[in-house]
Write a sequence for this structure.
DNA sequence: TCTGGGGTCCTAGGACCC
DNA sequence: TCTGGGGTCCTAGGACCC
């Protein structure tokens, strides 16, 4: 007999806004949005009181206030949200070690082995009550035999919902849903699918011409068809979130940048903050990329692989400046971004370096020593004196 | 009064090696 | 002289998500 996994998708409702309410209960029942309080600002989140007025996340502040004049715009406090997020995951890990964080405010749990006879619905209800009581945070939970269905299920009732989506419910509950509500299908793909007559998830599940579909879904065609029929991976990997793939920062300049000097200043600040975060996480990077968006919204990016992993500020900044120089098109700049990829944990680098005998290592690659030096230097010293003097 | 900032993953082409 | 196929790494850009 095939054994079904029991997967939970636990999703904190209106997370940033809920954190603010938890900190300051007088905000409860008042419509609030999180974001920079300028007309051009964007709300990252709106609480449910605000959503009643048609305010949504990613909405422009000006538009949001038009819909809800009494809207309270609260500036974001990422440190606070990180703190709550950590407590959220800590709590989940007391329930099972099969916890895979999917973002700052959601996680997949495989509770198959942790029910101890408890009904999944009761278990979910307990999670919901615990989180509300201890952290003051509302969650929605999806219960399903795989990740995709669990994710779709947690979305069906918000806030404070618990939704079971079994494979046998798919035709009735999933198929009538609009294709745009399918996780993984975004606003570029939707029009393409509609072009070939796919309006609902059910349309996708029963579509006859796979070749036609593959034109738009590429390699993921089978995976999407499978999901639309309620199939999908049930694998929950607790270690997945530990391996960071990239660390980057970007900034939009509202008034645009016109002078090359200001652009370099901006890049320096971004590089500083990227390096600081690399150090905090004890990562070194082998690839660096610079992203530019011009005032006309055209975008360019350039990336280069370094000879060795590094998290040395001077070295990274030099690379960033070179990349930008070769990229820059003499236009006003709207956004700058610096990102590092190809990351490796510092302790891994030490291990790799230790395969060589010290003397041989010296001859082999002086660059390696530079990296080591910079790592040592920054272990016990605050960063970034150089960047600030400019 | 268009469009923030953090990410992940994918694709397609090219270089290079065996 | 022309022409393989597999694999890896790199780069630019794009789609999508929270």
């Amino acid at each position: 007999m095939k054994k079904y996994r029991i997967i939970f998708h636990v999703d904190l409702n209106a997370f940033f806004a809920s954190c603010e309410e938890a900190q300051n209960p007088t905000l409860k029942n008042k419509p609030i949005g999180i974001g920079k309080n300028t007309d051009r600002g964007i709300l990252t989140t709106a609480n449910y009181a605000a959503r009643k007025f048609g305010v949504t996340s990613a909405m422009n502040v000006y538009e949001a206030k038009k819909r809800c004049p009494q809207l309270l715009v609260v500036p974001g406090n990422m440190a606070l949200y990180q703190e709550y997020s950590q407590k959220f995951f800590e709590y989940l890990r007391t329930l099972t070690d099969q916890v895979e964080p999917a973002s700052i405010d959601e996680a997949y749990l495989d509770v198959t082995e942790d029910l101890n006879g408890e009904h999944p619905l009761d278990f979910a209800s307990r999670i919901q009550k615990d989180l509300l009581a201890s952290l003051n945070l509302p969650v929605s939970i999806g219960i399903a035999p795989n990740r995709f269905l669990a994710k779709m299920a947690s979305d069906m009732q918000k806030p404070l919902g618990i939704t079971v989506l079994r494979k046998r419910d798919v035709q009735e509950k999933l198929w009538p849903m609009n294709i745009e509500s399918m996780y993984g299908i975004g606003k570029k793909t939707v029009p393409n699918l509609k072009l070939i007559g796919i309006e609902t998830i059910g349309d996708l599940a029963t579509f006859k011409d796979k070749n036609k579909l593959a034109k738009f879904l590429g390699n993921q065609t089978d995976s999407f068809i499978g999901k639309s029929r309620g199939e999908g991976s049930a694998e929950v990997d607790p270690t997945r979130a530990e391996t960071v793939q990239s660390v980057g920062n970007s900034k939009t300049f509202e008034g645009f940048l016109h002078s090359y000097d200001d652009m370099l200043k901006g890049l320096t600040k971004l590089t500083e903050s990227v390096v600081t975060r690399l150090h905090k996480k004890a990562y070194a990077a082998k690839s660096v990329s610079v992203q530019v968006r011009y005032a006309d919204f055209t975008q360019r990016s350039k990336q280069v692989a370094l000879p060795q992993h590094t998290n040395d500020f001077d070295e990274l900044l030099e690379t960033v400046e070179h990349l930008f120089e070769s990229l820059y098109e003499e236009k006003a700049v709207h956004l700058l971004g610096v990102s590092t990829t190809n990351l490796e944990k510092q302790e891994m680098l030490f291990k790799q370096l230790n395969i060589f005998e010290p003397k041989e290592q010296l001859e082999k690659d002086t660059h390696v020593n530079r990296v080591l030096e910079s790592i040592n230097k920054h272990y016990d010293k605050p960063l970034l004196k150089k960047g600030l003097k400019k």
Notes: Residues 15, 44-45, 57-58, 102-106, 183-189, 287, 289, 299-305 of chain A lie near DNA strand C (CB under 10 Å from a C1'). Chain A has a mean pLDDT of 89.
